[in-house]
Amino acid sequence: MKYTHVYALFLMFVFCTSCKGQNKTDLPKDNIKSKNIVASPGPHQITRNIIQDRKGNIWIAAFDGIFRYDGKSFANITSKVSSARFFSVLKDRKGNLWFGSVGSGVYYYDGKSFRNFTTKDGLAGNAVTCINEDKTGNIWFGTEGGASRYDGRSFRNYKMNAGFQAQPDNDDVNSIIEDKTGKFWFATRGNTFVYDRKVFTVFRKNDGKPFTNIRTIIEDKRGNIWLGGPDGLWRYDGSTFTNFNQNFVGYIYEDKKGNIWTSSQSTNGRDLALSRFDERSLSGLVSAKGQCLLSRYDEKSLLDKKPTVTEIKPGHGMICGILEANDGSIWFGASDGVYRYDGNTIIDFKGKEVRK
Predict the structure, then answer these.
(1) Are 216 and 249 in contact (CB under 8 A)?
(2) Which residues pair with 339 in a beta bridge?
(3) What is the pTM of this model?
(4) Are the C-beta atoms of 226 and 217 separated by less than 8 Å?
(5) Where are the domains of the chain?
(6) Which of 115, 121, 298, 338 could form a disulfide with 108 if both were Cys (CB 3.0 to 4.6 A apart)?
(7) How far apart are the C-alpha atoms of 333 and 213, rounded to whole Å?
(8) Centroid of chain to Cα 84
(9) Exposure letters 113-146 (e unless 16+ CB within 10 A, then b)
């Protein structure tokens, strides 16, 4: 599937569109209800994002569906709803779930029924790579056509790169966070931006060069901003930048102890993370060269010039979303499903022990 973007270059950085009033109601009776959930051994295709809810259930966004793991077995929640390839997942403060897909928009699931939002409803794009809930309960979606904010009734859409760059794919949004000060950070295929709710400002290094094509932004417990992309892993403490490595970094995650986990590339091979939502990128992911590492940066040494790093080599061509489960194990997505690392062994949920 090929996505084409037609952008008008306005002096303003933001444009707004509103869909017709959207109420959080159930779909018509002929739509799929949750009773049709299909038992499954777990994902077998590209697995992009993993979260855990308050009840301990693990939710997995994969190209063969949305899976829920209850500690004993997997269930494919979307098998009867959509054949879309799923990329992102969020559970909001009200307990509702949001599933972002590659090409089919976003699905809202209240535990009983599903609702699908697309560009026809006002969403900025139908390829949804990230979902975030802000402090006031608004849901933000990063898409291939910019960012969308949903307040429960309508969408407001944002284009950060208008006026900065003319390439149409530079409004692809890879990551969105709201920091402790209330500012928003947007990582796009073009620049990285800080949004103070009024103006988008390009985020630049000390040398004046912007951070470009950043794949993940997180804020740690201390308020530091971490960025990962083609130029490696960076930390910004509000005044100083620290570059921890110069190899490609796709995902960043902070565990309960403050350790920083990343998926990174160990060689100068091809970029191993999905950067665009077209068929060529999707097929190229699996055959990418170079070895991907799951790395842990020890919290106690993060202030050192050379922090202590533990590298785990699962032997996969790619590593995607990372999660620390309630039991302390680390889950991560790969090109052929989901894996769990208990500190000694990696389990693939296919009856095989991958690594001791």
Answers:
(1) yes
(2) 332
(3) 0.82
(4) yes
(5) 34-355
(6) 115
(7) 21
(8) 16
(9) bbbbbbbebbbbbbbbbbbbbeeeeebbbbbbbb
CB 99 within 8 A of CB 105: no
pLDDT digits (tens, 9 = 90+) for 282-302: 332 333 445 788 999 999 999
For 34-355, CATH number?
2.130.10.10
Question: Is the pLDDT score of 232 beyond 80?
Answer: yes
pLDDT tens, position by position, 2-51: 333 333 322 223 333 333 333 232 222 223 333 445 556 789 999 999 99
DSSP letter (8 states) at residue 285: H
Instruction: Give the E-state strand segments of 144-191 in sequence order.
Output: 146-150, 155-158, 173-178, 184-188
pLDDT in tens, 306-349: 899 999 888 766 889 999 999 999 999 998 899 999 998 898 87
Lateral strand order in the sheet of 74-76? 38-40, 74-76, 65-69, 58-62, 47-52
CB 213 within 8 A of CB 230: yes
User: Which amino acid does the sequence have at 161?
Assistant: N
Token code pair at residue 59: 């939710």
SS3 at position 46: coil
Q: Kindly state the tokens that stand for 120.
A: 């026809």
Strand order in the sheet with 106-109: 86-91, 97-101, 106-109, 114-117
Please check the confidence at residue 277 and state whether its pLDDT lies above 90: no
